[in-house]
Structure formats: C-alpha cells, structure tokens
Amino acid sequence: MKKFIVWVMCIILASVVGCNTAKAQSQDVKKEGKVFIASSSRGTSNADTPTEYNWRDTKGNEYPLYLHKYTKGEKEGKYTVYVIRKSAKTNKEYKYYVPNGEQIAEQIMKEMK
C-alpha cells in the first residue's frame, strides 16, 4: 500500500511539473515566408551588449568585451564585463568574466553616457 501511494504521488508530481514546463517553454511565433519570428521575448530584454573595447589576456590574445547586467540576486541592476573564449580542448565557446569586471563596467558606462 505504501508503494502504491508513493507511486501515485510521483505520477501527480510528474504531471504538474510537465504541465508547468510545457507552459514555460511555449512562445508566440509567427511565420513570414521562410522566417519564423518570435512575437514575445523571454528574458532577452536584458541582452548583453557588445562594447567597442577589447580585453587582452596574459598571452597577448585580444577579445571583444561584452557588458552584462545582473537581473537577480544582491547584484541586481549592476554591470560586469566578460569575453567569449574558445576552449582549446573541446573547441566550445564560453563566457569568461574578467577580473575586476564590475570596475571596468563602471568605467565603460561612464564613457558611454
């Protein structure tokens, strides 16, 4: 009997989670010719902004800096900067948040105004 109750609870939980996930992933999309256009955005309003500045690492490689705005937590509303690097082993791109990124972001924001 105990296993049956646990089994029923798991099915109910899975169906509730599944419904919420499907709802969260749905998005209004319209088609114009061969192009699909999202009519609503999910979180892209705070898209990271490319800047005119570059970051040079210790090996002499230069990367373009991107400005990132925090949207959650204690740093909400603050900015930092990152670069997009490529892994030598896997050849995948990833974000590298530069040291002292918040101070660099402040300087960039002052110059942008």
How is this structure best summarized?
The protein has helices at residues 2-25, 101-112; strands at 29-32, 35-38, 49-56, 62-69, 79-86, 93-97. The chain is of the alpha+beta class and 113 residues long.
Order of helices and strands: HEEEEEEH
What class would the helix/strand composition place it in? alpha+beta
The value of Rg in angstroms is: 22 Å
Q: Indicate the mean pLDDT.
A: 77
End-to-end gap: 68 Å
Task: Describe the protein's architecture and organization.
- The longest helix is centred in the first third of the chain and has 24 residues, at 2-25.
- This protein has a domain at 45-112.
- The protein is 32% helix and 33% strand.
- Residues 19-25 have low confidence and may be disordered.
- The chain has helices at residues 2-25, 101-112, and strands at residues 29-32, 35-38, 49-56, 62-69, 79-86, 93-97.
- The protein has 113 residues and is of the alpha+beta class.
List the helices and strands and how they pair.
Blueprint: H1 2-25, E1 29-32, E2 35-38, E3 49-56, E4 62-69, E5 79-86, E6 93-97, H2 101-112
Antiparallel strand pairs: 1-2, 3-4, 4-5, 5-6
